[in-house]
Amino acid sequence: CFQCSLCSYPLHNLPYQVSRNQPICEKCYSEKHSNNCFMCGQVQKSHCVRVFNKVWCAECYMCTLCNKKLTTKSKIANFDSKPICKKCCEKMPKELKKRLLSWSMPSKD
Hints:
GO terms for molecular function: metal ion binding. This protein has 3 helices and 7 strands, in the order E-E-H-E-E-E-E-H-H-E. The protein is 18% helix and 24% strand. It has 2 domains: 1-33, no CATH class; 49-102, Cysteine Rich Protein (Ribbon), CATH 2.10.110.10. A hairpin with a 2-residue loop joins strand 3 and strand 4. The chain has a 3-stranded antiparallel beta sheet, with no helix packed on it. Strands 1-2 form a two-stranded antiparallel sheet.
């Protein structure tokens, strides 16, 4: 069955997009490629950060735990698809730290 590679919705006779040679339904494509800030919902025309498949405006891009402002040079870890700073990650119990993804660097849009 011809389906969306992200949500498995059947795409027979429906419009779709292609990303990395994979079919993606219109809904998933717009969610993945949207420039709305994940936190405030404002459309970002410039100076946004894309990390963990989400867009963040400069004002909202901060550590989820301590609210420290982050930059594109900040080392961050993935905590439930939200960024946490290195300092907060280091304070976490060992078991939880092991489950966090490796350090990530965001990309500028």
